[in-house]
Amino acid sequence: RAKVLGRSHYEVFAVGLHAELTRRMDLEFDLRQALDRNELKVYYQPIWDLRLQQLAGFEALVRWWHPQDGFMSPSEFVTVAEESGLIIPLDQWVLEEACGQLQLWRSKLGPDLPLILNVNLSTKQFSGGNLVTSVAQILERTGLPGHYLKLEITERVAMDHEKGCIDIMLALKELDIQLSLDDFGTGYSSLSYLCSFPVDTLKIDYSFVSRLTQSDADRIIVKTIINLSHDLGINVTAEGIETQEQLRILQQWNCDYGQGYFFSKPLDAAGAEQWIVKG
Ligand code: C2E
Ligand code: MG
Ligand code: MG
Ligand code: MG
Questions:
Q1: Which residues pair with residue 82 across a beta bridge?
Q2: Ligand 1 center–CA 13 separation, angstroms
């Protein structure tokens, strides 16, 4: 690297860019293989009903142990998956795996488990035109009734696909599926989306929750988001709750659900099953 510094800035840039591109292509190759070879896993993070003080459900989160590099965070490989199109089969694999898992739990622990399964959907799913059909097929194949499922999308969907996205959301709701607006507050023109999207739940991004005890401004924002959502008939999940004090504040403001390390980290299926058994 030091030698390169003597050359033009352009070359320094180009060398860095080349390394980055190579890394991405390697990652894409490995990820494709991981999908083919079933090397991905789904973890489940408990979502806690703050009012009833009981388990409300889980968020399914993809996990990948890279054969050489070990555990790799989704925030690293989801972007690569989105840019390469691999996110379509990846999300669908996670969805089918998680729906199948909930079906297993229902057959083992009782068909009326009062649990909602949250699954993330990339905004890229909204471009292909067959999202609704593939989701319907997955429900059919696994046998999971739609009302057990809540799909998490981000407000980015409106920027990427301005026109069609609301129609797709409505079609998903026709399948009895609920919708959740993820990472709320990190995108743009959030408030207008909140009114126009047919969502059941809003997830307050963890960045707001983490600043709750330090910043008056964030306290006001979070409190306002909760009240506004409730006025619109939308319930609220706070993500990234790590401390008792954050939980206390959110409960005081009637936040409906909580998720975060304070309750539990994402767990493998066996760990999640323990939570269901405990109630
Ligand atoms: P997300 O959907 O907002 O998921 C919540 C993330 O916050 C998860 O990170 C979770 O492990 C983490 N988290 C939960 N509680 C806490 C806490 O108390 N403190 C902190 N600091 N973090 C907490 P994870 O699993 O690394 O996933 C990161 C993002 O990757 C997700 O954010 C989601 O956008 C994306 N992702 C994960 N799985 C999938 C998937 O199957 N499909 C798609 N399209 N995206 C996924
Ligand atoms: Mg999510
Ligand atoms: Mg989130
Ligand atoms: Mg988030």
A1: none
A2: 31
Place of tokens 């090397």: 39
Q: Where are the alpha helices (DSSP H) in 161-267?
A: 165-174, 190-196, 206-210, 216-231, 244-252
- The whole-angstrom separation of Cα 269 and Cα 101 is 8
Cα separation of 169 and 179, whole Å? 8
Report the nearest-CA residue for atom 33 of ligand 1: 120
Is residue 7 over pLDDT 60?
Answer: no
Find the mean pLDDT for residues 54-77. 93
The chain-wide mean pLDDT, for the chain, equals 91
Asked if this assembly's ipTM is beyond 0.90, the reply is yes
C-beta separation of 113 from 277 below 8 A: no
Q: Which of 78, 82, 88, 268 to mutate to test the pocket of ligand 1 (most atoms within 8 A of CB)?
A: 78
Cβ(205) – ligand 1 distance below 6 Å:
no
pTM, two decimal places? 0.93
Residues making up the chain, counted from first to last: 279
